[in-house]
Amino acid sequence: MATIQANAIGSWQRLRPPCEVLLFGDEEGVAEAAAQLGTRHIPDVECNEYGTPLVSSAFGLAQKLASHGLLCYVNADVILLSDFLTSVAQVRAKPFLLVGRRRNIDLDAALDFSDPFWEQELLARVRSQGELFVPSALDYFVFPRGLYANMPPFAVGRVAWDNWVVFQARTSGIPVIDATKTITAVHQNHDYSHLPQGEETMRSGLETMHNRELLGGRHRSFDVRDATHVLTASGMRPAKGPRHLLRRLQKSPELNTNFSPLVQVILGCRALVDPVMKKRGAYPFRQKNNKPGK
User: Cα(37)–Cα(9) distance, rounded to whole angstroms?
Assistant: First the structure.
């Protein structure tokens, strides 16, 4: 994991204009990595009874300690490229939440940041080998300071908390922007040997169950499909495609949106038919290359 984290942090440090990088946690090696890479280290993150850091603590500390008014949470296995800040600069909404899907890639060597063409070479590899991951898994969030002051005590590295972040923005009337088209978020595949029971801990352990309880149910699981806007090369535009509209209908109870009785009947029928259609593979437009990252 050391190489993966060095690749990710090194890419953040090369964003222009320069960004302040804060590393959270007191796990073994974090302080050394921060010192070696020249980033600010915040060790005093609140943990749960299992010793797992809480996302809520990291978000709270970042909003108090950061030097800038615009913040970004990003997982330490994700490489960001020059298109990141270029995309953020296109956002014309205040406040807002910007999210996007990641691209999985096998990358087991350290990036040579002294090579002036390192980004172009990595981009070429992502285009030929990268896999666009599922829309429900989110790895980065850009938002203004103060937007998330009262986050439930979610455990980091487990499911559901990222979906709550989008749910909270949507139900608060905050524009949610899907930047998948303009931001290349490169996720370096890895195993879960750092967890007590590997990947099972992340997907079905007690902490995961608790995260899901804090979310409040699957109906509150929001993601990039619930974006109100899409970011393109020409700027922001409202998310009005068929899939966005259908998703909005499906999530209408959580969004307190009133639809006609006919629409409610259609939604009820869709809820009954969808599981059968998915089982039969009757949705050919759904992406097939959504294998989990290793």
Answer: 8
Do 27 and 57 contact (CB within 8 A), yes or no?
A: no
Q: 């524009």: which residue's tokens?
A: 175
Could you report the per-residue pLDDT of 211-256, keeping only the tens digit for each? 999 999 999 999 999 999 999 999 999 999 899 999 998 898 898 7
| Bridge pairing between strands 102-105 and 97-99 | unpaired
Model confidence band, residue 203 (pLDDT cutoffs 50, 70, 90): low
- pLDDT confidence of residue 232: 96
pLDDT value of residue 196: 57
| pLDDT over 50 at 276, yes or no | yes
Phi-psi region of 130 (alpha: psi -120 to 50; beta: other; left: phi over 0): beta
* Tokens describing residue 81: 């490229």
- Is residue 135 reached through a cis peptide bond, with omega within 30 degrees of 0 on the bond before it? no
Q: b vs e for 159-181, b when ≥16 Cβ sit within 10 Å of the residue's Cβ? A: bbbbbbbbbbbbeeebbbbbbbe
What whole-number distance in Å separates Cα of residue 93 and Cα of residue 84?
Answer: 17
- CA 259 vs CA 20, 249, 255, 263: distances in Å: 45, 8, 11, 6
Q: Beta strand pairing status for 70-74 and 131-132? A: unpaired
Instruction: Give the residue extent of every domain in the chain.
Output: 2-231, 252-283
The CATH code belonging to domain 2-231 is: 3.90.550
Q: What is the mean pLDDT of the chain?
A: 87
Q: pTM (2 decimals)?
A: 0.84
Closest by CA position to 16, among listed 122, 105, 119: 119
Torsion angle (degrees, nearest 10) of CA 187, 192, 194, 198: 160
Least confident of 162-166, 175-179, 197-201: 197-201
Gyration radius of the chain's alpha carbons:
19
